[in-house]
Amino acid sequence: MLLVAVAMSGYGAVDLNTSLAARAGAVDARAAAEGGQFGDVLLGRDSTIIKAVSIPIAPLPNHKPIRYTVQAADTLDSIARVHGITLRQITWSNPGLRLPLKAGQTLKLPPVPGVVVVVKNGDSPASLAAFYGVDETTILGFNHIRDPDLIPGLMIVIPVDPQTGPNLNNGAPADPMDPGALFCPIQGAKIIQKFGPTSFALEPASGIYLHFHSGVDLLAEYGTPIVAAAGGKVTAAGYADYFGLRVAITDSYGLVEIYAHMSDASVKVGDSIQQGQKVGLVGSTGLSVGSHLHLQLEVGGVPTDPAPLIGCQ
């Protein structure tokens, strides 16, 4: 912040004594002539008031979407850290993103916490505001849009308060409990197997690893209720190979949550699910040894570590 002294002349010593007395104490003619500091007012030798004015010198924040070219060593986590956003905001801004990342590919990134959106036919500031849980004027003002008739193909940024997060299609907050985070599907449950390479022979091979655990396992008794880690839309429900009975939710950020080995599913494909809403019961179906929940998180079809889970041990 730059402080600039602005002179305001036209005041005599006697007038200054009257106007400043209440704030800086009595000011006599001699003090006015010699100059001095009275509160936040600087008095010059010629009885001129010199008032400090704040002028911003830092650059204003960029409001345009960022087009980032992926480098050889980049990961979603490293890109998120450099740009001060989250992994979920990257996937949110790049629907259909597939992993692994490839050098040279381009990602759309929001310059502030939020999402980059390409306007589609039928989109309006009101419909986008309702879907993303923001005020219509925020979208128009941030993107300097004067014409409310949005042009299909236009790329805009929708800033979203990280403390609020996006909405579901029905307008309800997707993540009312822990916006932008993953809520433990069984509060207080102990994680008995983490994501990554393992010596457990039942786990399938992955890449260079002979055995790799593609999610986290939570210990719980048979029939324990399971709730959604993050809000979204149910995109799969039913039996699937070693998952057994499973529910898949594509969350509001575009990540896929898979709840496996269930004994019962209480949702169906197409349902809108809020974070913390019941999706089924713990079981031991599929390739499972004892009752537990296998939670898997996928980005572009590739498993990624779902930790941290808010409320798990």
Distance between the termini: 46 Å
Multimeric state: single chain
Q: How many domains in all?
A: 3
* Regions with little confidence, pLDDT below 50 for 5+ residues: 1-27
Shape: globular
The helix tally amounts to 6
In the CATH scheme, the class of the largest domain would be Mainly Beta
CATH H level, superfamily name of the largest domain: Glucose Permease (Domain IIA)
Quote the average pLDDT: 82
Strand content range: 25-35%
Structural Rg = 29 Å
Largest sheet: 10 strands, antiparallel
CATH architecture of the largest domain: Distorted Sandwich
Structure description:
The chain folds into three domains: 2-55, no CATH class; 66-159, LysM domain (Membrane-bound Lytic Murein Transglycosylase D, Chain A, Roll); 182-310, Glucose Permease (Domain IIA). Mean pLDDT is 82; it is low at 1-27. The protein is built from six helices and 22 strands. It starts with a strand and ends with a strand. Helix 5 packs across helix 6 (136-142). Strands 10, 13, 14, 15, 16, 17, 18, 19, 20 and 21 form a ten-stranded antiparallel sheet that branches. A four-stranded antiparallel sheet has the order 1-4-3-2. The chain has a two-stranded antiparallel ribbon with strand order 5-6. By secondary structure, the protein is α+β, with helices and mostly antiparallel strands. Strand 3 (41-43) and strand 4 form a beta hairpin.
Keywords:
313 residues, Membrane-bound Lytic Murein Transglycosylase D, Chain A, 10-stranded antiparallel β-sheet, alpha+beta, Glucose Permease (Domain IIA), 22 strands
